[in-house]
Each structure stands twice: as C-alpha cells, then as structure tokens.
Amino acid sequence: MNWILALPELVLALSGLAILGIGVLPKRNTHFACAMAAVGAFLLAAALAIGAPEGSAFGGQIVSDAFTRFAKVLILIGAAAGVVLSLDYNAREGLDRFEYPVLLVFATLGMLVMVSANDLMSLYIGLELLSLSLYVVAAFNRDDERSAEAGLKYFVLGALASGLLLYGSSLTYGFTGTTNFDRIADALSDPSKASSGLVVGMVFVIVGLAFKVSAVPFHMWTPDVYEGAPTPVTAFFAAAPKVAAIGLFARVLGGPFGDLAGQWQQVIVLISLLSMVLGAFAAIGQSNIKRLMAYSSIGHVGYALVGLAAASEAGMRGLLVYMAIYLLMNLGAFAVLVAMRRQGRAVERVEDLAGLARTDLSMAVWMAIFMFSMAGIPPLAGFFGKMFVFKAAIDAGLWTLAIVGVLSSVVSAFYYLRIVKVMFFDEPAGALDPRPASVSFVMAASGVFTTLFFLYPAPLVAAAQAAVAALLG
Amino acid sequence: MFVGAVFFPLLGASIAGFFGRWIGDRAAQLATVICMVLAAACGLTAFWQVALGHSSQTIEILTFVDVGGLEVSWALRYDTLSAVMVGMVTLISTLIHIYSVGYMSHDPSRPRFFAYLSLFTFMMLMLVTADNLVQLFFGWEGVGLASYLLIGFWYEKESACAAAMKAFIVNRVGDLFFMLGLALTFWTFGSVEFSTIFGSIDQHMDATFAGFRAYEVIGVLLFLGACGKSAQLGLHTWLPDAMEGPTPVSALIHAATMVTAGVFLVARMSPVFEYAPTALAVVTVVGASTALFAATIGCVQNDIKRIIAYSTCSQLGYMFFAAGVGAYQGAIFHLFTHAFFKALLFLGAGSVIHAMSDEQDIRKMGGIWKKIPVTYAVMWIGSLALAGVPYFAGYYSKDFVLEAAFAAHSGVGTYAFWCGIAAAFLTAFYSWRLIILTFHGTPRADHHTMEHVHESPAVMLVPLLVLAAGAVLTGAVFAPDFIGHHWEEFWRGAIVNAPHNEIMHHVHEVPEWVPLLPTVVGLSGIALAYILYMLAPSIPGKLASTFGGVYRFLLNKWYFDELYDAIFVRPTRALARVLWQTGDATIIDGVPNGAAALAADVARGAVRLQTGRVASYAFTMIAGLAVFVTMLAFGAAR
Amino acid sequence: MIAALSFYAFAAILIASAVMVVTSRNPVHSVLFLILAFFNAAGLFLIAGAEFLAMILVIVYVGAVAVLFLFVVMMLDIDFAQLREGFQRYAPIGAVIGAILLIELFMVLATWRFAPEAATLRLNPMPSGVTNAEALGRILYTDNVFLFQACGLVLLVAMIGAIVLTLRERPGTRRQSIAEQVARAGTVSVRSVPLGAGLKEIGIARPPSPEEEEPKQVEHHHGHGGHH
C-alpha cells in the first residue's frame, strides 16, 4: 500500500480538518487566518504533487503520473488564486466566515482525487466531494436571493448529473465486471466485447462530466449560477473545477474508453460545436459581465474540447495547454471583476466599466489584455491555446470543427472587444473603489503570463506533452 | 543596426505609452520622434547596404514556438524587398511623427497618440521583416490592432468608434482567409519558414487540395487576406471610413504602412504565386476593377480626405494588377513612389484642414491659395505625381505598371490595361477637381474661418517639403534599379520570376503609343477638370442633376455599405437577438430581472419560477442525453 | 423451494411498493411505502446470506432515514399537486424522450450477459470462515480505505454545508457554555440538606449577582498589588 502517492491529498485533507479546528475554537473572526492557512496548504500540496513519485496505490484506485502532476499543479494554483481573490471581497460583503476556506480546501481535495482517480468509484467520490462543496459555496451569501437560488439550482441539476454519471458507471461495471480503469481498458481492447451497453454507459459518464465542464447542452445552469454566486466564488468555479473536470474527461476517454474513440469522438465533436457556437452568440446580448463570462467560459470549453475531439496525442496536448492558459487568463479577468466595486457596493454590469481607462488605466490595460487574449489575438496566450487545438483538429481531419471554431472566435471577438471599447472609449461612469493589493497581485501575475507566454511557451508545452504521454500510455 | 530599425519604434512606443503620464507630453513626443529618427537612420542604412550594397542577410532573435513539428524562430529577414519596405516605412513614419508634433499640438492626449503611432510603425516593420508566415501574421494582426486604436483615437466621436470597429471587423474577415492560407501553406510545405517554402516549391508542384492545385488555393486565400488589409474591391469599405482618425494617421495608414501590407504579401509570396496562374488572374481582375471602381467614386466625393482615400484604393488596384501580370517589381516600385506622394497629399490635406479650422468639405473651401502658398505648391506636386505627369515619381511607376499590363498580352492583362487607362484619366480629373475646388475660385467658407486661414508652422512644413522632394525625385532616381536594366542585380531573388515569366523584358518592347497614352489621358483629365471647375463651374451641378441616378450611385459608393449591412450585419444581429431571446429571455425568463422580480415578489414567485426553470434545465439535459445515446446506440458495434 | 418462493414474494412486494412510492398522491403514504420497500430489500439480503447488511438496512434506512423523511414531509406540508402542475406542461415531450431512452436501455439490456468471472464471484459471497460483518469490514477498511475516508469527508462537507447555510446566531439567545460552567469556581456550592426541611427552613440559595462581584474582584487585585 503505497500511500506516499496520495500525499498531496492527505496533506489537504488533514489541513482541511486542522483549519476547521482553528476556525471553530477561537471566539474571534478567524477568516483571514484560515484563508492564509488554506493558501499555505495549497502551496504545500503543489510542492508535494510536483515531487510525487509515479505509480498506483490503494489497489489501483488512484495513480500518480505526469498527467496528475500537471493537472494537480494547475488546480492548486487556481484554488490558491481563488482564495486570494476572495479575501477582501468576503470581508466587505460580510461573508468572512472561516467555513469558506475550509470548503474550498475540501473542494480542491475533491478535484485532486478526481484527477488522480484510476477507478470509477474514486472518480465519483472525488467528483461528489467537489460538487457538494461547490453547492454550498455557491449559496454562501445566503441572505442574497440570487446566491441562494444559484446554490439550489446548481444542487438540483448537479444531483441529476451525478445520478447520470453513476448510472453510466454502473452500466460499465455491469458490462465489464470491474470499475478499475486499467481493467476496463483491458476488457475493451477486444473489440468484440464493446457491446452497445458499454457505449451507452460511456455516454452517461460523458454527460455527467459534460455537466461539470458546462458544455452545451448541459450548460444551462452556468449563466444563472455564475451570476448568482458571489464574484470570488464565480472566479473559483470558472477556474480550477473546469480544469479538473476537463482533465477527468481526458483521463476517462483517453484511458479506459480509449478503444471506443470512434464512438465518443462523435459525441465530443457535437458537444464542442454546440458549445463554441452558443458561447459566441449568446454572450453578445449580455449586459451583466458575470453572465457574459459564463457564456465565454462555455465557449472556451468548446474550444478546449476541439482538442479532445481530435482524439490524438496532439489534440490532448492542445487540450491541456488550452486549459492551462484558460485557467490563468480567466483568473486575471475575474480579478478585475472582483475589483469592480463602486462606493462600497459590488457592481457587475458591463457599463460599470465605462471609461475605466481614464479612472484606473492599469486595470483597464490588464482587462484589455485578458479580453484580447480570450478573443485569440496574437501574440497573447489565448491565441496559442486556440492555435494548438485547431491545428490538432485539422491534422485529425476535423475541418468542420476547425472552421466553425475560427468563425465563432471571430464572432466572440465582438463582445470581448465591446468590453475594451466600453473601457477605453466610453464616458467614465465614475471611479471604482481602490482595489486591494491581493487582487492586483493576481491580476498582474496573470496578465504578465498572458502577455509574455509567447516568449517562452516551451516549459508548459513540454509538461503537457509529458502528461499526454502518461495518459495515453 | 538591422535590429535597431525594427525595435527603436517599439522602444519609443513603450516610453510614450507607459511613462507618458510621468514624463509629460513634450518628453513623450521627443522620445518617440528621436526613436523614429534613429530607426529611420538605421532603416536607410539598411536600405543602402542591402538593396544598393547587395548583401542580404537574416538575423536570428530567438526561437518562438518549437512544438509538434511546428518550429518557428523569430528572425529578421533582410533582403532587397524587406530593405525597400523598411527604408520607406521608417522614413515616412519619421516624417509623419514630426508633422504630428505640429498637427496634434492642441490635442490633450498626445503621449497616447505618439505611442500608438510608434507601435503601429513597429508592427509594420515586424510584418515586412518577417522570416516566416507566422511572424508575418503577428505583424499583420498587430497592424490591425494598432490601426483600430488609431482610427478610434478620438473616441469621443461616435463615428470614429464605429469606423474603428468597422476597420477591425472587415480586417478580421480578411485575416480569416489569411489564416486559412497560412494553415494550408503549412499543410502543403510542412513549414512556415520562407526559406523552406521557397526552397521546396518544385517538390510540391502537384500537391492538390480539395481537387484544386494547392498553390492556386493558397494564392487565392492569401490574396483574399491581402484584400482585407489593402482595401480591394469587396473589402474596401473600411478604408474611407478610416478617415475618422487624425490626418497623420490617415497618411500613415494609407501611404506607408497598413494598406501596402497586402501588396507586400503578394510580392513576398511571389514564388508561390508564379505557379498559380489562376490566382494571378484573380489578382489582376480584382486589382484592375478596384482601380477603376475607386476612381469613379473619387470623382464625386466632397470630403477632401475621402477623395484621397479613394485614390489610394485605386492606386492599390494598380499595384495588384501589376503583381497579377507578374511584374511584382513594378508593383513594389509603384508602392514605393506612391508612399511618398500619397503621404504628401494627405499631410498637405491635413495642412489645409488645419488652416481651415478643421473644415473637410471642399465645397466650403476655395480661394485660399494665396494664403497658404507652400501647402498649395506641395499639393500641386503631389497631384502631378499622382496623375503620372512626366518626370514626377508617379510617371515612372504608373507607366511601367500599365506597360506591364499591356505586355502581358493576355485577356486579363488587356482588361487591366484599359481599366488602368480609364482610371488614370479619372485620377487626373479628380485630383484637379480637388485642387481647384480647394484653392481657387471664390471663397465659400464663412468670413470668420477665412480670417484665420494661415500657413502651418515649420514643423509641419519641413516634412511636407521632404516628401515633395521625394515625390519629384524618387521615380527618376530609382527607376533604373527597381524596374530598369539593373533590376536583376537589384532584387537578387528577393522577388522570384519563374522562367516562363519574361514580362520584365517584354515591358521594354511595347509599341510606342503605349507609354504615351497614360500621359495623354492624364493631361486630358486635368484639362477636363480645368474646364469644368475653373472655366464653367455651373456644368458639374447640371451634370449631377441630369444624371442623378449615376451621381447618387457614385456618391453612395456603389451602395456597398448598404449591401453589406443587408447581407451580413443585420442577419448576424437578428441571429444574436433570436438566440438571446430564446436562450435567455424566454427559457430563463429573467434572472437578469429575476433578482428584481424576486425582491418584489419574494415568497410566491421565487419558488414557482425556480422550479419551473430548473425543470426545463434538467429537461434539456435529459434530451441531450437521449440524442447522444440514440446517436451512438444505432451506430455502435453490437 | 421455500427460499425461491420467498424471494419472489419479497421481490414482487418490493417492486410494487417502489411503484407506489412514486405514484401515490399523499407524500406520507409515499414514505410509508418506501419503508415497506426497505423491509423487503432487507428480506432479499437475508435470503442472499447477507444478514449484516439486512440489519443495517433496517436500522439505518428504516430507523433513521425514513423517519427523518417522514418528519420533513409532515413539517413542510409540500403541496405536491401544485408541483405537478409545472410538470404537466412538459409531460408530452418528456414522455416521448423518456420512452426513447427506455427503449434504448432495453435494447442495451438485451445485449447484457454475465462477465466470465461473475459466476465464481456469486458462488463465493465471502471467504469461508469469516463472518459477514468481518468480510464487509475487510472490504471497507482495508481494500477501500481510501474511498472510505473520502466518503467520510463528503459527509463532513455535507455537515459543514448544512451548518453554514442554516445556522444563525441571533442576538439575545442564551446558549450553554460548557467551558464557562466548568471553570466557574466559588459561586456554586454543594450543601447537604437536612431531610424534611423545606425552602422555608433553609432559604433559597442564589449565585452572587455580577454587580456585587465586580468590586470584590477589584479589591482582591489591589491586595495582590500591595504584597508585591
């Protein structure tokens, strides 16, 4: 029993419990201390994840390899940034309760379990740990109807998705007699055994995962939840869990169901097409910037899935690079959203950014960089993400996907540029409140990455390459 | 030095852009101008060394992307073609910077302006010194971005914002084709490096794509991309609107940089185009049509800058059909001379506008030539060069282009030749219409404006005089090198003419009347303008009312904007609205207003609405699931 | 023979009561049918030789979960008819899609067959010489300890969630503070009370009120200060 492999998870679990203890016992407000402890735990876990040895543990229920390392580090970065973004916001909105960092720690733990899962059971439990924590934090601002509504909606639909995932898992178990990924792959390596029952089970699993990444047509919760949840929670939602769920997608479809590529490719192509198109068009009419970002993230998931649809090594690599870039630039954009406060109140309309260039030039410039990057304008990081996945799609002969992707990124450039236009060319709507240093830090770090990625993309691409090699064996 | 020519503008842009607020307007201006002067010095030296001193080279900067068989290094390619462009761009951009110091002296946000201007120059230099298609694309997009910023510089003006958006979106359409062309190039050659592509031209001669020869498809796609940047027929609509930017911007965009990018691309990819006859025919026809089409519109416009803008459009048409018949050298030569006299015309127009207190309508000018003699003189020189009057710069290049079209002896070549001749006549006509209406006759501006008419300050006049010298001399000085008998030593393979393409020799063997004809029609165009607007100013009005339909057709620019609005803009907007309404307003039925509704109607409404909506969400999910299961269950192996 | 008969009896009742759970109009009846279903499932477990599971099912599900359901249903007074109203609108399309899915699942079922190893697994429900509970324990605490612990965290998160979303500290509520009670000294004394004596005789003992205590404390401190 090689429990060392699960060290990052163990550390997070124990620190979660410890933080809970720190938070409960003292009489005064311990939110800040707990949040800092959570960030520390994330960084420690990231260090451990980088140094983790390779192999599988707990009877093959979890694995540790280059892929888990890649995904875990990304997730932990996203989670740490999510906590940092929440510090000031929560204090101002009266949400500074210590349960918040505790829940985020457990959510992150769930994500780590998800990406290192090598068994349908550990997959499900990781997913459920993540989901349950997210349901609660979505409704964390319980006195706000929108937040409560968001949490409830997310819970009901998430339960449905979990049910579908479980049903798919049980079908798979029924037809292969095992839940272990390696043995499912073995069972499928003989094509004659690939019965329609397995295919249907796989579709159910895909649907359950597609809900988590909010791919069309399982995206309906996204705009409502993104809008309703407190902004730092939305930032958290849009970053780390997306990476974890996409990573899980890659793991499940590339590993156990790798031999059914011909079948799942059709589903992923369709999901990806729909997501790209909807993400591009539905965002145009939005005036609430969080809602707009929700549609934007739906579109981005569509682009990322283009890489998965290619079902090739290059495609998977593109997928991972895309998610890394998406994570980092999205954190930056949400840092701007978190910083949008006027006279002590959080504001979230696109018009509230009007004339930002004249009231807070540096924030406007960062935001413009993120928007241009999301629109895929070179030489910003977002362009490279798109380039990798589209190239993989073209190599795999998926011309439709690549062309629709390029077209929809042209359409989506419209609403990204609208934000830039509002910031730079509209009459100022009054200055925003000064932003806290923590938010500026996230914004600047993410901005620097987005801008300078093109100078030295090699490390990220090499890490993704190693991860894919581990994934596809 | 070679690196300096490219990166000094970036340095200037960074100083003015990031530190402009701290170091003040003057320092920011000074920094950008000094950087540009240094860049121009480097650029001209590079031109001297590379083009005239015959020493091409490539300078590695760093490796850009190196993954999955796509290796792109960042290098500056200096051959004659690049050197010509670098020298021209840095020189003209420097003059425009200096001019802007005077022109923009009343504007509150000068550091920003200068930063954009330098950034724009940098991007253009990146484009022309690119060593591979990806780097070229980087510069290409960067130019688009910078032009968006510059055209929308006066963002208080609604029309400026709209024009900037329009320029950006129309350019994106072109870029889309460029990207496809780029992808196809990579697919065909397995590389985006120019040296690799040009070296393996012979091996991929028979490659096909979707049933067509790959070279043809690449050629057409790249040309469509070039159309966007170079405002050729169909994608030209952004160019006249781009006049909303400050006048130096117009000069920079229309004379030296952005619009010439397309012509440059075609010349750069000449090895591929040489083996794509159909693509070349397309280039010729579109170029020739644009030349004539834009000239017709130019005849009836009333905004001084728009007239010049349409003339740019028309001159770009000349360049394209020159490239189309295989005389890339002629295209680049015309580009080169055109840069000088078009910059001159724009800056001269800026000087007029400056003098007339920001009036741009030539119907409200007139009779001011005595008050601004220097401007008047340089406008004459610019127009003479534009009309191709002998011994001015335009004469050499335009004549060569037309002779090349004639010498092609092909159907499309002949079409281009006659279109070019007609356009030359119209060009001369509208140039003199502009001069006469602007400077002569009775003053039509109000008394107050007329009192304030004044010659521009020296900082604006000096660039004008330099450009005027260029407009007079560049043709005669450089013609032997660019297109004359020394052309082979001069270009040294920077532009490739296939063995079967002997147009550069044929050009010198055309009949006597061919070189004479452009001059004759040019002079007759001037004469017609003189008669109509100087001697009998009542005739044009009568003509306009007699041929009302034609006049309105031309005045409304052949209704291209309206056409695009109907075909593209409105359906997109409608589609967006439909998606928004069904996807959001109907199904979700108002979480945007849901919050408000909830606050007002907390207890009862909230629960009802929520369950209803969640059910429909869940329903969508199940429906999606059913679709996927059905899709696979009937396609799966049993 | 008897085992087979009772299996079919339990199974039939189980399915019938499951149908009633979904269809009955009265929510309380639904919960009662659910309890019936649990009992029958426990019976099935017994027949299969899993007596520990059978007992757990009865204790946990019937004893705790279902009773909790009953409480919730009775306390909340949900108008199910009203909920169904919204459902009716989607019923036709929903039925069509549901039917399609169902048909497909039946088709899937038709292709189902036992895995080769399944037969051996079924014959050996547990290693010989080991009790039912111990076999379960081995699986839970040894083979699947990772998942078991993770499940524990899921439950912890559920608990935290419930507290976060519902617990409100209202001003003015008096709550027991054990630490304070334990730390209290000198204010409570244990007395032996004579038999037969009423309040009239021994009087009511009250803790000293804080107002009285304050000055005392101050005095005490002063005393200390003086000594040092």
TrEMBL record, chain A:
Stretches assigned to the NADH:quinone oxidoreductase/Mrp antiporter transmembrane domain: 117-411
Ranges that cross the membrane: 6-25, 32-50, 70-91, 98-117, 123-140, 152-176, 196-221, 233-252, 264-285, 292-312, 318-340, 361-384, 396-417, 437-456
Top-level class of the enzyme under EC nomenclature: translocase
Topology versus the membrane: Multi-pass membrane protein
EC numbers: 7.1.1.-
Locations listed in the record: Cell membrane; Endomembrane system; Membrane
Keyword Cell membrane among record annotations: yes
Keywords (A to Z) from UniProt: Cell membrane, Membrane, NAD, Oxidoreductase, Quinone, Translocase, Transmembrane, Transmembrane helix, Transport, Ubiquinone
Pfam families (UniProt xref): Proton_antipo_M
GO biological process, one term: ATP synthesis coupled electron transport
Family matches, as InterPro entries: NADH-Q_OxRdtase_suN/2 (IPR010096), ND/Mrp_TM (IPR001750)
Gene Ontology molecular function, alphabetical: NADH dehydrogenase (quinone) (non-electrogenic) activity; NADH dehydrogenase (ubiquinone) activity; quinone binding
Reaction(s) catalysed by this chain's protein: a quinone + NADH + 5 H(+)(in) = a quinol + NAD(+) + 4 H(+)(out)
A GO term from the CC aspect: endomembrane system
Role noted for this protein: NDH-1 shuttles electrons from NADH, via FMN and iron-sulfur (Fe-S) centers, to quinones in the respiratory chain. The immediate electron acceptor for the enzyme in this species is believed to be ubiquinone. Couples the redox reaction to proton translocation (for every two electrons transferred, four hydrogen ions are translocated across the cytoplasmic membrane), and thus conserves the redox energy in a proton gradient.
Subunit composition and interactions: NDH-1 is composed of 14 different subunits. Subunits NuoA, H, J, K, L, M, N constitute the membrane sector of the complex.
Protein name: NADH-quinone oxidoreductase subunit N
Species of the source: Neoroseomonas marina
Gene that produces this protein: nuoN
Automatic annotation (TrEMBL), chain B:
GO cellular component terms given for this protein: endomembrane system; membrane
Localization of this protein: Endomembrane system; Membrane
NADH:quinone oxidoreductase/Mrp antiporter transmembrane domain span: 130-419
Keyword Transmembrane appears in the UniProt entry: yes
Record bears the keyword Cell inner membrane: no
GO annotation, biological process: ATP synthesis coupled electron transport; electron transport coupled proton transport
Keyword line: Membrane, Transmembrane, Transmembrane helix
Residues covered by the NADH-Ubiquinone oxidoreductase (complex I) chain 5 N-terminal domain: 65-114
GO molecular function annotations of the record: NADH dehydrogenase (ubiquinone) activity; NADH dehydrogenase activity
Transmembrane segments: 6-23, 30-51, 80-101, 113-130, 136-155, 176-201, 207-228, 249-267, 279-300, 307-325, 331-353, 374-395, 415-437, 458-479, 513-533, 614-637
Main localization category: membrane
Membrane-protein topology: Multi-pass membrane protein
PANTHER family: NADH-UBIQUINONE OXIDOREDUCTASE CHAIN 5 (PTHR42829)
Protein name: NADH-quinone oxidoreductase subunit L
Taxonomic lineage of the native organism: Bacteria, Pseudomonadati, Pseudomonadota, Alphaproteobacteria, Acetobacterales
Underlying gene: nuoL
UniProtKB/TrEMBL annotation, chain C:
Broadest EC class assigned to this enzyme: translocase
Keywords, sorted A to Z: Cell membrane, Membrane, NAD, Oxidoreductase, Quinone, Transmembrane, Transmembrane helix
Gene3D superfamilies the UniProt entry points to: NADH-ubiquinone/plastoquinone oxidoreductase chain 6, subunit NuoJ
Region (Disordered): 201-228
Reaction(s) this enzyme catalyzes, per UniProt: a quinone + NADH + 5 H(+)(in) = a quinol + NAD(+) + 4 H(+)(out)
Gene Ontology molecular function: NADH dehydrogenase (ubiquinone) activity; oxidoreductase activity; quinone binding
Compartments (UniProt record): Cell membrane
Gene Ontology CC annotation, any one: plasma membrane
Pfam families tied to this protein: Oxidored_q3
Principal place of residence: membrane
EC number of the protein: 7.1.1.-
Entry membrane topology: Multi-pass membrane protein
TM segment ranges: 6-24, 31-50, 56-78, 90-115, 146-167
Keyword Transmembrane helix on entry: yes
Keyword Translocase among record annotations: no
Family, per entry: Belongs to the complex I subunit 6 family.
Biological role: NDH-1 shuttles electrons from NADH, via FMN and iron-sulfur (Fe-S) centers, to quinones in the respiratory chain. Couples the redox reaction to proton translocation (for every two electrons transferred, four hydrogen ions are translocated across the cytoplasmic membrane), and thus conserves the redox energy in a proton gradient.
Name of the protein in its database record: NADH-quinone oxidoreductase subunit J
Organism per entry: Neoroseomonas marina
